[in-house]
Amino acid sequence: MKVVPSTYHQYLDVFSKVKSEKLPPHRTCDHHIKLEGSLPPIGVIYPSSKQESDTLRDYISENVEKGFIQPSSSSTGAPVLFVKKKDGGLHLCVYYRKLNAFTRNNKYPVPPINQLLNVFNGSSIFSKIYLCGSYNLLRIKEGDEHLTCFRAKYGSFEYLVMPFGLTNASSSVQNLVNDIFQDLLDVCSVVYLDDIMVFSKSEEEHVTPVSTVLSRPRANNPFAKASKCLFHVSSVEYLGYVFSSEGLKMDQAKVQKTVNLPPPRNPKALQSFLGFANFYHCFIKNYSKKISSLTSFLKKYSCFPLNEGALSQFHQLKEALTTSPLLLYPPFRKPIPAELNYEIHHKELLGIVWALKRWRAFLLFLSSPFEVLTDCSSLQYFMSSNFLTNRHAHWAELLSECHFSITYHPGRLATLPDALSRRDNVSPQRGEDFISKNPMNFQQLIKQDEVQHLRHSSVKVESFSNLIDSIQKALWQDSQYRNILQELGKGKSIQDYSLDSSSQLLLSKDQVVVPNDPTIQLIILQKRHDSPLARHLGQEKTLKSVKRDFHWSGMTQFIKDHVSSCQQCSRNKNIHHKKDPQFDSVNITQDTPSGKLSTKIQSVQQDFKRELEVSINRFKRYADKSRASPPVFNPGDMVWLSSKNIKSTRPTKKLSKRWLGDFPILKKVSNHAYHLKLPSKWKSIHPVFHISLLEPVKTSTIPNCNQEPPPPIIIKEEEE
Questions:
Q1: Which conformational region is residue 289 in: left (phi greater than 0), alpha (psi within -120 to 50 degrees), or beta?
Q2: Which ranges carry the Tf2-1-like SH3-like domain (predicted)?
């Protein structure tokens, strides 16, 4: 008993091997065998060697002495098999396969292992207790003993305790341990069949839950095996995982067995490897993608050995298993990132829900309705809304217990709450510690692989310091601005102009004045439009972005010309043209009544027609206001080709380029169709296209504006 600390010596009887070998009492959760139909057929008696006969004789005499089995006269019986142990001995197994086929399944749940891993947040001290002979802790229900009969050359015997090999055995054991430790589950312990884990936040707190857990077997007759127990450790292996105060990681003793594992040569070996990897899939990012090629070899008629793609994934998966990260326990008591990222009105409503849940005991049985004040005006209609999202419906159900009304109270009137909630020493300020006090500021906005892509981007942008130097030099070289700088340097004031004291740049209404130098203007546009971080905005948004900080004459036309000639924008943005003119309505003569009635109807029809024409023209002018005229092309013109009807190798249509090219026009087929010169590799695509699928290529008039060629596009496994 050296394994058991002296603190728990009062529970040494729980670890008694002699008591664990006694026949347990009957309980309400005894193992019941429910048959579907008749009794299973009788199994044959297999011939046995001398070693097997000795093992059988010892097993029968030992268990008869314990009272676990007794002679049987059952009309059924299962055969006996033997399996070799690691030490060379034999292990007796009763082959209950036919009995299990006739047994009705017990639906009592055994908890999934992955759901037992989420309760250890904040725990630093662990103990593990192993129940000895957990299957023999249960009795067979009275009247079902004859169904467990096994036949051998020394006679027929039936079990009084639950043997190994029966279906529903694990459900019965879980039912027993849940009944014993029900009030301790997920509070201070986790129980999976015969393995018990006790966890606490500190060494001092750990003694009480361990003592409570050890007292339960004493009162219910299960016993623990001291050699398999651990007490007061900071790291422990449990159910194939290693738990510690830092987090959860894989059991390296099991993982290291895969290091020298050869590639699978048949589906069974592949299933075995993937089954092991699936157990630890939560440690491997994008696990399903990393095994996609391997799982394809599980299909029927797959040919082994593995191809290069599957073999590469096999080695990558082995490396991922041996270099897996440490998983942190989920902090359920803290706000999750999704809650921190709620929209403003959701956060305001969550505050009301949280407050009413906190004060529920005081508000639930008020004799009169109470009033909730909020500075979010949209919330005053929440309880009367006809449409609710799933989240709102859940919150509305929680709030419906209380009788209250939500009233809009402007923030400017909330002087008393602001005095408490907006104190300078409590609320995070815009200073050095603002980021550390706002967790959402740590959210990763750009992934690491995207950062690497930006580093290798084809767009080369001058640094900000170089841009300032270039503007300063160009201003002094421009005669108009040189005079203004000289006057301002003498201390004179000039209307609409000022001089920045730190950078010595010329400002016009707080905007940096840029001289008439296309090179500098192009550098600014590369920062505000061409850069991946600028997102290739349209003409109006780019103009607004540049105007916010810079000013030069002819800026609008310069930006319009640059954006319209941008290849990335031309490829990826939709272009709208004027709609085709509508056909004139055709008057068809019909039989109409004669006389005054006919004249009146014709007059009304003419009025309707005239009003409709006015209305149609009004809508047409409004619709055509932002649309351009359809283009007219000549042979030799360069055009973009719409990818609407062309399939590429991109994973989805949404990620494909909207325009392909550019391509030269060979000839005009008709007023609505043109013949293009396509790449020679595009043999499967007809080169004649409708005018609606073509768009002219706009060339930049800015000098030295050379753009990097875009990467090739794969069309039906053929490069553009």
A1: alpha
A2: 636-697
